[in-house]
Fold:
Amino acid sequence: MHSCSERRMMTVIWSLCLIFCLSNSILAIAKDLCLPDQRDALLEFKNEFYVQEFDPHMKCEKATETWRNKTDCCSWNRVSCDPKTGKVVELDLMSSCLNGPLRSNSSLFRLQHLQSLELSSNNISGILPDSIGNLKYLRSLSFRTCHLFGKIPSSLGSLSYLTHLDLSYNDFTSEGPDSGGNLNRLTDLQLVLLNLSSVTWIDLGSNQLKGRGIVDFSIFLHLKSLCSLDLSYLNTRSMVDLSFFSHLMSLDELDLSGINLKISSTLSFPSATGTLILASCNIVEFPKFLENQTSLFYLDISANHIEGQVPEWLWRLPTLSFVNIAQNSFSGELPMLPNSIYSFIASDNQFSGEIPRTVCELVSLNTLVLSNNKFSGSIPRCFENFKTISILHLRNNSLSGVFPKEIISETLTSLDVGHNWLSGQLPKSLIKCTDLEFLNVEDNRINDKFPFWLRSLSNLQILVLRSNEFYGPIFSLEDSLSFPKLRIFDISENHFTGVLPSDYFAGWSAMSSVVDIFDTTPQVHILGVFQGYYHNSVVLTNKGLNMELVGSGFTIYKTIDVSGNRLEGDIPESIGILKELIVLNMSNNAFTGHIPPSLSNLSNLQSLDLSQNRLSGSIPPELGKLTFLEWMNFSYNRLEGPIPQATQIQSQNSSSFAENPGLCGAPFLNKCGGEEEEEEEATKQEEDEDEEKEEKNQVFSWIAAAIGYVPGVFCGLTIAHILTS
Structure:
């Protein structure tokens, strides 16, 4: 029998043996996370500065002095690494007593995977080198209070991941990265105490900056040389008095969009101002100071709350060319526009009456947008006088009468007369508009055959004929269709008939391959950058719901909608070559035959509707590999057989398969023939697998016990030897 002290001794020794075994195992697999090239770069960076307190009023920590060679740099003070790659991703040396310049060839710039760099409150005097742009993955960068001077490097504009930038309390003499570059993710910007007295251009627009609840806009008052200022959408709660900027006598371009403005009725503004953008500024009265802006060239006061009529004096301004008063509550008849007008956008207001013939006398007019108003009467036939117009949008009014047959303008690129009461035929004179890209005549009373002549418009990208009275076949041996750039084809809710050949979609190149198509909405050079001043829009049926597509969405969506017609025969096998298609709607027709397996080639498809036809056969199991397919509808057909068990198909509601008496299997409750036997077989196989797995687990347990037995015997013998000695 052992005494209590001996038992305690045995317990201690057993514990030491266990710790010894575990520690050896850990040490055997442990290694430095830090990569040698990262360690070398950090050590070289450390030696580029001398470490010493430089301000008796500010304490600093000599963080880099603890960095030692042949140790894991990922465990060094103020250094963080990616645990998977061993790359240095964060370097926080704020107040680290660093003294000296940051050289353009600094080893810092070899840390290519840095995401956060904090060097604030150090004595890093000199010029910020352009090499800072090499750290392309930076999300946060701060040189606050570092005694830097000179020009802010333009390379900062290339840091597209940057969300936080603090260069405040230095002696920089420029306004920042030229035009902001690619800083479209920037959410926090600090540039206080910059020396900006000679700056002529500042662009801080469209950055949605955080932490700017109250902004002191008086900081711009001393910028006497400022010509262009963009402070749009700064995400500030400040009420800004426009008079703050009235002392900037050189100001030519000003954009304060998205800022809550206060405008005094007695405000006097520099008459040299040529561009003024005050969109979404909560303005309730038409700004009276504009009457004296004799140099005004571009005016945008859209998306405000201005009521009543547009003052007549506005149209007497001698150089006024671009006017955007959309999304207000202007009423009355359309004003008499001056001949200098190049672009007039007045959509989403309360204008009424007929469109005056005087509009046709505007010899320089390029853009006329009168959508979403209350205009009535017919489209003036004098529109044939337009020789320069590129965009004509009269959408969603109460216009009636026959669609004018006369050519509007051979320079036309976008025509939208949807949601009116127009009748007659689609004017064949449009065939001369060889630059036409966007054509929308939806929801009218146009009675015509399918316009096969549109195939000659090789630039056509959007064609919407939905909800009219078009009729007849959409295929002809004499007039085969080939739309190389077409991306949206919507002829739904008409009376089209006939059979489509197997190769019907063979010439639709933009839907069958990746083609670089850009939103070609006319651009204008405002505040130093190109800005689109109007975007097309169209309503599409997607995933069973109507959605409005606006602007850049046109470069993404590629859709075909032929629903609500009387088309017959097989669905063309060539539909499978349209690999870029996102929405396909062929519902509510009289299609017969099987669902073509070639649909499984549409790898980008998100919405598929084949409901309310006469399709037979089974649902192709191949459709299950369409990983982007979120919504599908096969209801009201003559389909039969088991519903494929693929995840994308099984995630649909049972209504997507309704009224197909021959379909069986989940999500329906009825099981397919032989399915019960298959379930029993699957259950038996699963039980066998579980039994085999249990046997393997027992074997592993014995192996583990054997492995543990050897060191246990060794420790036991050691203890016995100690106790008996």
